[in-house]
TrEMBL record:
<dbReference type="InterPro" id="IPR040079">
    <property type="entry name" value="Glutathione_S-Trfase"/>
</dbReference>
<dbReference type="InterPro" id="IPR036282">
    <property type="entry name" value="Glutathione-S-Trfase_C_sf"/>
</dbReference>
<dbReference type="InterPro" id="IPR004046">
    <property type="entry name" value="GST_C"/>
</dbReference>
<feature type="domain" description="GST C-terminal">
    <location>
        <begin position="90"/>
        <end position="211"/>
    </location>
</feature>
<dbReference type="Pfam" id="PF02798">
    <property type="entry name" value="GST_N"/>
</dbReference>
<comment type="similarity">
    <text>Belongs to the GST superfamily.</text>
</comment>
<protein>
    <submittedName>
        <fullName>Thiol:disulfide oxidoreductase</fullName>
    </submittedName>
</protein>
<feature type="domain" description="GST N-terminal">
    <location>
        <begin position="1"/>
        <end position="87"/>
    </location>
</feature>
<dbReference type="Pfam" id="PF00043">
    <property type="entry name" value="GST_C"/>
</dbReference>
<dbReference type="InterPro" id="IPR010987">
    <property type="entry name" value="Glutathione-S-Trfase_C-like"/>
</dbReference>
<dbReference type="InterPro" id="IPR004045">
    <property type="entry name" value="Glutathione_S-Trfase_N"/>
</dbReference>
<dbReference type="InterPro" id="IPR036249">
    <property type="entry name" value="Thioredoxin-like_sf"/>
</dbReference>
């Protein structure tokens, strides 16, 4: 059994997509980040960076004590190793998969995240910041679109690299991007969107959080106003 500490964000969706693909037994423990539940002492023992997702695997392959993992890329890598699925044992394919996983973690996710913040959530609209992150998101879309010219999925076959990237493309309209400008990316996006496991993962998200929007000032402060001092309060 895997405990999945989850909220309905792109990084959260990565893990439900993987778990639904593989059929691993898991239990969702919702962590409502708009209410500050990510700062609870019990959660911080598992995820010291106070971010979702995180997991606890109660049946690790070494048959030892339960193991906890935070950071969505690390979780995908761990689960792929555990199941032997969606991460090839072939050196070159495995390396390609992991480099695109890290590309998402270091580039697509952070840049699209800043795009979301300045265009959707910031109370003060700063044109330079909005344009900066919209343009960088556009560049990254172009990188992936170019890469997909001669392949169906990022590493040839469907892998954790695809699961990592897809949720960050879902909000393309909010990011100021038109997928029709990126035909290879658009084709890839539609293939993953139609996968039964993807459909199930997003249905789960809608059941847990039907209105995934920052509604009030208190939620805004919790999500966007934290500093190192904030952690000492919890």
């Amino acid at each position: 059994m895997i405990d999945l500490y989850y909220w309905t964000t792109p990084n959260g969706h990565k893990i439900t997509m993987f778990l639904e693909e593989t059929g691993l037994e898991y239990k969702i423990i919702p962590v409502n980040i708009s209410k500050g539940e990510q700062f609870s002492p019990d959660f911080l023992k598992i995820a010291p960076n106070n971010r979702i997702p995180a997991i606890v695997d109660h049946d690790p392959i070494d048959k030892g004590e339960p193991i906890s993992i935070f950071e969505s890329g690390a979780i995908l890598h761990y689960l792929a190793n555990k199941t032997g699925q969606f991460l090839s044992s072939d050196l070159r394919i495995r390396t390609e998969t992991l480099q695109w996983l890290y590309w998402q973690m270091a580039g697509l996710g952070p840049m699209a995240g800043q795009n979301h913040h300045f265009s959707q959530y910031a109370t003060e609209k700063i044109p330079y910041a909005i344009e900066r992150y919209r343009n960088e998101t556009n560049r990254l879309y172009g990188v992936l679109n170019k890469h997909l010219e001669d392949r169906v999925y990022i590493a040839g076959h469907y892998s954790i690299a695809d699961m990592a990237c897809y949720p960050w493309i879902v909000s393309h309209e909010k990011q100021g991007q038109n997928l029709e400008d990126f035909p290879n990316l658009y084709r890839w996006y539609e293939l993953i969107k139609a996968r039964p496991a993807t459909i199930r993962a997003y249905e789960i998200a809608r059941e847990i959080n039907p209105s995934p929007t920052v509604h009030d000032e208190e939620a805004r402060k919790i999500l966007f106003g934290q500093t190192a001092k904030s952690l000492n309060k919890h």
